[in-house]
Amino acid sequence: MSKQELKILGQDGDGACCGALATAPLDEEQAADLAKVFKALGDPVRLRLMSMIASREGGEVCVCELTPAFDLSQPTISHHLKLLRQAGLIDCERRGTWVYYWVLPTALDRLAGFLAVPQAAKASA
C-alpha cells in the first residue's frame, strides 16, 4: 500500500460523504475515497484489530494488549494500526510508553449509513 494519506470520509464540511448505496450512484471521487476505507478494512488482521478495539469495554485498548493476539511482530501490528488511522477509522494517544487506540464512531456511522438499505428498497426486494 502506498504511503499517501487517506482522505477521511465526511471531512468536507457538510458531515456526509455520500448517500446510502441504494439511494444514488457514487461519483468517481466518492467511490475512490470509500474504496480506500474498505481497502483498509479488507485485510483480516486489520479487520480483527478493528473488532478488538471496537468491542473493548471502556472504548479503548492499549497496543500492548493487541499485539499478543497475533502471530506478528509489534512493528507489523503498528503498521496495520497506522493504516486504520490513516483511513480515519481509529485514533490514538500516547500515554507514557504505550499507545491507546479507540474507534471513531462517526466513521463507522458513515459506513453503516452507506451500506444501509432503505425500508422501501427492502420491501420491494
From TrEMBL:
Domain HTH arsR-type span(s) in chain numbering: 26-123
Question: Could you tell me one molecular function GO term of this UniProt entry?
Answer: DNA-binding transcription factor activity
- Provide the organism lineage as a comma list: Bacteria, Bacillati, Actinomycetota, Actinomycetes, Kitasatosporales
In the UniProt record, does the keyword Transcription occur? yes
Pfam families (alphabetical): HTH_5
The name this protein goes by in its record: Transcriptional regulator, ArsR family protein
UniProt-listed PANTHER family: ARSENICAL RESISTANCE OPERON REPRESSOR, TRANSCRIPTIONAL REGULATOR, ARSR FAMILY
Top-rank taxon of the source lineage equals Bacteria
